[in-house]
């Protein structure tokens, strides 16, 4: 992928309503469910253009891992961010190394997602937390998934079933972006009929559609922010994304 792609996504990760709200959800739930050790040892796998690492850095010491060599170059040269090039299916770390292990919209990019989740669990410390987010529902499959090189989308049950229930437990799972799931479904069906280059910019994903419309950005932000306030009191019945927080048992 070229520099223009990462520059496009750099802006989206920091200004687009969906990314901003996901970031707030990540911080909120990590604070609630992570061990109260200070500072937290955090592993962030699949950091993209670095926004999740920036957010997690407010909670502890973050080690960043990214698979794409060109993305690693962007992070190092453009952001001066330390990052290790590596794969979620073969993490270069010892067992039980991190208090929090994160993979935000990562495992859908991996054909062998079971091995990926096992690796996340392996490097998680006893009583530590694994936090994973994924796109939800194959019904929503579209060009957005193709351009982002997804293998699949998930139901909440499909996601939680990847986690070893003998080595720990799912402490919270839910969908999110429920209130906008209907409009997103309609948009994705409509965009199948419209030439892709008419409505998408360099990154080519749905995030680029109307990305510069400040009014809509603010409106959708407020709608989705209402959902975040419900977390973790409720587990939403549907949405465009799903997430799972799994806690490793204390084996010491």
From TrEMBL:
UniProt name for this protein: Class I SAM-dependent methyltransferase
Which keywords are on file for this protein?
A: Methyltransferase, S-adenosyl-L-methionine, Transferase
S-adenosyl-L-methionine as UniProt keyword? yes
- Which stretches make up the Methyltransferase type domain? 43-131
Instruction: Name the domain of life this protein comes from.
Output: Bacteria
One short Pfam name that applies is: Methyltransf_11
Q: Native species of this protein?
A: Fibrella rubiginis
GO biological process terms, alphabetically, are: methylation
Q: Which residues form a coiled coil?
A: none
What GO annotations for molecular function exist for this entry? Answer: S-adenosylmethionine-dependent methyltransferase activity
What InterPro entries does the record point to?
Answer: Methyltransf_11, SAM-dependent_MTases_sf
């Amino acid at each position: 992928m070229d520099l223009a792609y990462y520059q496009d996504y750099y802006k989206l990760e920091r200004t687009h309503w969906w990314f901003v709200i996901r970031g707030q959800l990540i911080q909120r739930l990590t604070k609630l469910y992570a061990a109260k050790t200070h500072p937290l040892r955090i592993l962030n796998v699949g950091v993209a253009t670095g926004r999740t690492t920036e957010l997690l850095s407010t909670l502890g010491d973050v080690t960043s891992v990214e698979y794409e060599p060109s993305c690693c170059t962007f992070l190092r040269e453009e952001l001066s961010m330390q990052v290790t090039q590596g794969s979620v299916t073969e993490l270069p770390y010892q067992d039980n190394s991190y208090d929090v292990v994160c993979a935000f919209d990562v495992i859908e990019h991996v054909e062998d997602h079971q091995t990926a989740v096992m690796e996340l669990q392996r490097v998680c410390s006893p009583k530590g937390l694994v936090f994973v987010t994924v796109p939800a529902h194959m019904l929503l499959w579209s060009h957005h998934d193709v351009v982002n090189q997804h293998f699949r989308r998930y139901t909440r049950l499909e996601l939680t079933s990847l986690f070893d229930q003998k080595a720990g437990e799912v402490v919270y799972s839910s969908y999110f972006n429920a209130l906008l799931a209907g409009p997103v479904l309609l948009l994705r069906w409509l965009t199948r009929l419209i030439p892709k280059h008419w409505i998408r910019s360099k990154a080519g994903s749905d995030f680029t559609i109307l990305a510069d419309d400040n009014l809509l950005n603010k409106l959708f932000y407020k709608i989705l922010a209402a959902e975040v306030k419900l977390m973790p009191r409720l587990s939403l019945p549907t949405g465009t994304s799903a997430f799972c927080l799994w806690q490793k048992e204390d084996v010491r």
